[in-house]
Amino acid sequence: MNLIKCPNQHFYDADKFVTCPHCENEAAGVRIADLMGQQQKDKDTAIPDDPESVSRPKTTGWLVCTSGIMRGESFILREGVNHIGRASHMDIRLSREPSVSREDHAVITYDATDHTFILSSAAHADRVWYNQMPLTGAQPLTTGDCICLSDCTLLFVALCNDSFAWD
Fold first, then answer.
1. Max CA distance (Å), the chain
2. What SS3 state is found at 105?
3. Residues near 133 by Cβ (< 8 Å), separated by ≥ 6?
């Protein structure tokens, strides 16, 4: 594979295409979306000049699907806010779970100052359960807690806590 970027910032495989297929499609008026309905131009594809200088949010914990279509799959929780939904731009993408909302079915926030995780859901509170109880407001999470998003159940596992946290 010979991945290159065209002058319009599209990525394409130069071994397969002589010119950028995205630009050709746009010039012809053809809009090809990815599986989640997003256009490539809607996504940030910039590569920094010095990739080592970019600070990526660190892993703080995980969610593991224990029931639902994605059973057995795991998802990384990062520092800050983690949006959960089916859409391709969600931090936790439950793309094959039809009962989960496309955007922000729930949110898990990691607070680095006190090493806590908070589960919340404003728009879909009636479809979020926390340890077999309906979610009412924001709830703190501890390792082993179960989060049910409609037909999908996730087990929460914390990496960061009082005994370990990133500097």
1. 58
2. coil
3. none
User: pLDDT tens digits, residue range 138-155?
Assistant: 999 999 999 999 999 999
The pTM of this model reads: 0.70
Residues contacting 160, CB < 8 A, separation 6+ = 60, 61, 110, 112, 115, 166
In a domain, 131, yes or no: yes
Helix (H) or strand (E) holding 46: none
Lookup: tokens for 85: 């939904």
Structural domain range at position 10: 3-52
Residues 6+ apart with CB under 8 A from 157: 61, 62, 63, 64, 143, 144
SS3 25: helix
Residue 126: inside a domain: yes
CA-based Rg of the chain, rounded to a whole angstrom? 19
